[in-house]
């Protein structure tokens, strides 16, 4: 396989804020693989939380060029690279080029049924309660809202304000590791009062033992605490669900395997994304078919998506067409 790789920058429609900071553009890495006739693409998002940078991810991918030329395949890639954004870009590019070579869609190659449209969450960024109220009012007609929390002592006011502004929407909360053991109980209670149905990663990875002890009425989902199948053992007794993101698993191959094993262990499946274009969402839509909660709104946060992107009818996300991926 011949390789090309590049960094792309996609402006956001507005600021996107979580407990760790604010961004105004999506920085993605696109890998392309060619067998000489066909070309496949994969997109990933370097995530500073895991020590990843765009240049670093490009370097990791470039380092695989000799092995790719020698015939390294998608199956071999899983042991040749660690889970993360670099492997994700290459893994998804492999699925794309292999589908084109076989003249069959990726879901058939993976032994899956044809993907169907799914309702995706729409994100309300972390801000002051008044600003979150305004954002929730604009999105109140959407069936599922993901509310970013995890900063200071105002999270109870924030989630209450969002609930008042969007009384009919299902709410899920993502604290992005921003809560502490000291404020966990009060924040869980505020979310219960607001009718929240799922809470993502309330405590930092590695400092989440309190989740095994505290009584709660709302299921808790691991995000930063789960990457691939090797992560699952440490989640028992603390988490009820897992958020599968291809940039964490290192591609579609491991994401599908993680989903299957997590289900076997009794975890509810959520599929999520980084802020990225439809090229990142396309393979994740295959994992979304077995997910209770789908959070693939990345393109909706961009000022402009790439050509042939996913079609969104409000919050209903449609699977990718062949011109985009797979």
Structure write-up:
Helices cover 31% and strands 22% of the residues. The protein has 326 residues and is α/β, with parallel strands linked by helices. The chain folds into two domains: 2-102, Enolase-like, domain 1, CATH 3.30.390.10; 118-317, Alpha-Beta Barrel (TIM Barrel), CATH 3.20.20.120. The strands form three sheets. An eight-stranded parallel beta sheet has the order 5-6-7-8-9-10-11-12. Strands 1-2-3 form a three-stranded antiparallel beta sheet. Strand 11, helix 11 and strand 12 form a beta-alpha-beta unit. Helix 7 (155-165) packs parallel to helix 8 (184-193). It starts with a strand and ends in a 9-residue tail after the last strand.
